[in-house]
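pinning this so it doesn't scroll away 📌
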Amino acid sequence: MKYYLIESDGYVGRVRHEQVLDALGASIANGALPPGTVLRSEELQERFGASRTVAREVVRVLETMQLTSSKRRVGVTVREPGEWNHYDPRLIRWQLDGPARPAALATLNELRSAIEPCAARYAALRATPEERGRLGALGERLARTARARDLTTFLEFDIAFHDLLLGASGNPMFAQLSQVVAEVLTGRTGHGLMPPEPQPEAVALHLEVAAAVAGGDADRAERAMRDIVVQARDEIAALVE
């Protein structure tokens, strides 16, 4: 596959970089370029119709994601999956867009099951009054957009809800998983793994989490968030089968 774009400074140049990065990264993430594959700059330039500068930039990004490593006189080598940075949102997006989607969803749901209920517990204990109020407001907006079957706006509020909850936990490591959760939620909607109308039970559970956090009830918040993750897992399993 080749891309032919007029390269220049500014927006067009950035688009070209992102196109080549997405194409090459997805090929690695989904096994089309298996571990041990050696890529050379000249081959990348030819394959994608890219300049040397773009090829180097793409390789640099892939190395920061730990998908590849470079050695002089060898080239760029695709690394083993166990060495990849699996928390990188771009890698998650590439996996959800390809044949690795079922396995990626299962792995991500396990991560959410381990983290988000704990985050809800600590949010109930540590959230500021402002955060408690904002979480409740987001819960109400989720309920309104669910009734309207507005999945696009529902997704925006859902991402904001989980982002706020992770941040309100007071744990910066939990907070940094916000983009991971956002990619999961976006992937579910983008790939038709959401019901045409968000389930009333799921919306009610979000409101339950918000109420528990507002009331400082850690056990209740953790339980409701665990139920949210379990329900999401079951919905995805039913739609993937």
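📌 and the second one:
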Amino acid sequence: MDEAIYYKRTIVKEKVPSTSLGQERPVRILLPPGYQELNTYPVIYCQDGEQFFNFGRIATLMNHLIYDEGVQPAIIVGVDVDVATRTSEYAPGEARFEAYTHFFSQELLPFVESRFPVGSIAKDRIIAGDSLGGTVSLHLALNYRSLFCNVLSLSGAFLQQTQDQVAKETDLSWLKLYMLIGTDELEIATQGGTYDFLEANRQTKQLLEARSCNLTYIEKPGKHVWGFWQKELPEALKLFL
């Protein structure tokens, strides 16, 4: 097969108006090979959208999955974030967290679904994120469970507030969650301090399993970098598609 097909892509760039955030939010929307407006596609919403495309190489990886393994084509929405406000938007309890989750659930979804032929029920949506992007993705599912039931987490920052919220749940059998964590992620520096992400993910895993979450937990040698996450992303995507 001609290698060039893996690198061909159609990306539509949009700016989503948001009263919640008080500003427009740039998004990039990847349309799959053979895109037809009459079809209905599953949709993957990626936090840190620019990084998923540039460092995660999600467009090329999806083309390989579609052409080589017959994986169901999906539309991918990369939601960009300003590094300066990322923690404020992605970390529970921070100043812009409620505004961002409201934007994501109440403004972004209607914008995408009014313009592109994506599924409009929870099982058709996948939300993906790395580090704090995994955190906000899980909280979106917990807070808006009628909208989201599929979460893909790459080394999620599942610290105390997240664990406390999971602990309050009684039944998470409706939630399908992929968790990847590297065994080298023992001292991860964040704006709030340095944390052992490996231990935090192990503790969160126990809480999730005790509540019957449909959990796929992958723990293997790896650091808190895209070089680790990118290699695991194809198997994670196949789990949902």
